[in-house]
Amino acid sequence: MEYTTDSDSKLKSAEFDYVVLAHPLNQNASISAPKGLLPPLLEYKTVDSTLISGELDHEKFGFPSDESFDRLKGLSILPTKRGYEDDRNTLFKALMKVRSVAAKETEDGGAPSCWVTYSLPERCLYPGQDMCSSYFKKGVLIRSSRWLAYPDLSPLPNPSRTMGKFILSPGLIYANALERAACSMELAVISARNAALIIHTETTANQEQAP
């Protein structure tokens, strides 16, 4: 296999017993192979993840003004399809309370409320500033990241042929074979385990067959 690394653009080559292709084959993938070896590239949706420390604006969500979220371990605000698609003023797809190790402690030694929002750039181009000003009384941006999160998901008419294969060729494993049907962090863990099990099963079988 020939490859380059982020720190060194010089082309390298090496032989491997197994290669696990872990990067999703999306529009930014820079992977080339003989025709027909790799599944077609999928268009992935761009999503912004924004982490904010501060006090939520109760009035924006119809909560009582004396409602405290400090003791809650988790809270998720998810707009309905109508609430997001019909109300163009709704900037986020999800807003959730989280605990961040990046947020500084308050003066009394406690941790401030931290929230993460997931939004689409076509609705909210500058989530760092827009989320703070729209949904928080006192909001401090910790971090905002943009990434290709998932492909457009739709029913597969013939899953056995269109789902994708884990084993693309002997020794080449594609961990994201299920991406056309479902895509999440949990599924990524399952896919990684599948790749490890394939390698373990094949290497164990080869050892048993060895003279």
Automatic annotation (TrEMBL):
**Keywords, ordered alphabetically:** FAD, Flavoprotein, Glycoprotein, Oxidoreductase
Which stretches make up the Prenylcysteine lyase domain? 4-209
Q: Which cofactor does it need?
A: FAD
What is one process in the GO biological process aspect for this record? prenylcysteine catabolic process
Q: Which GO terms describe its molecular function?
A: prenylcysteine oxidase activity
Q: At the top level of its lineage, which domain of life is listed?
A: Eukaryota
InterPro entries in the record, alphabetically? Prenylcys_lyase, Prenylcysteine_Oxase1
This protein is called Prenylcysteine lyase domain-containing protein
Q: Which organism is it from?
A: Schistocephalus solidus (Tapeworm)
